[in-house]
Backbone:
């Protein structure tokens, strides 16, 4: 008995749970879930294509254990702290 090929839903689940290492484990809302565009066009991905994509996502050593880039978050926090300091300085001179 052969196993069924993976589906796009399974691939998305692997990505959303963080198994591919490209993001933290959290669901991403999607207006058009992975594979929907292909299905709507009448050309759904073959089981072999999904299996190849899933294997590539799970086996990429660069993605395994990758940490998310927090540079943008640090910038936003720095700007917020600076803005609050400027506002506080302006209020204290009144």
Residues:
């Amino acid at each position: 008995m052969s196993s069924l090929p993976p589906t796009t839903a399974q691939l998305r689940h692997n990505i959303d749970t963080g198994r591919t290492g490209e993001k933290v484990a959290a669901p991403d809302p999607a207006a058009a879930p992975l594979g929907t565009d292909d299905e709507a066009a009448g050309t759904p991905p073959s089981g072999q294509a999904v299996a190849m994509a899933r294997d590539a996502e799970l086996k990429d050593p660069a993605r395994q254990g990758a940490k998310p880039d927090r540079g943008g978050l640090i910038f936003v926090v720095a700007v917020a702290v600076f803005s609050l300091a400027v506002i506080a300085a302006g209020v204290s001179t009144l």
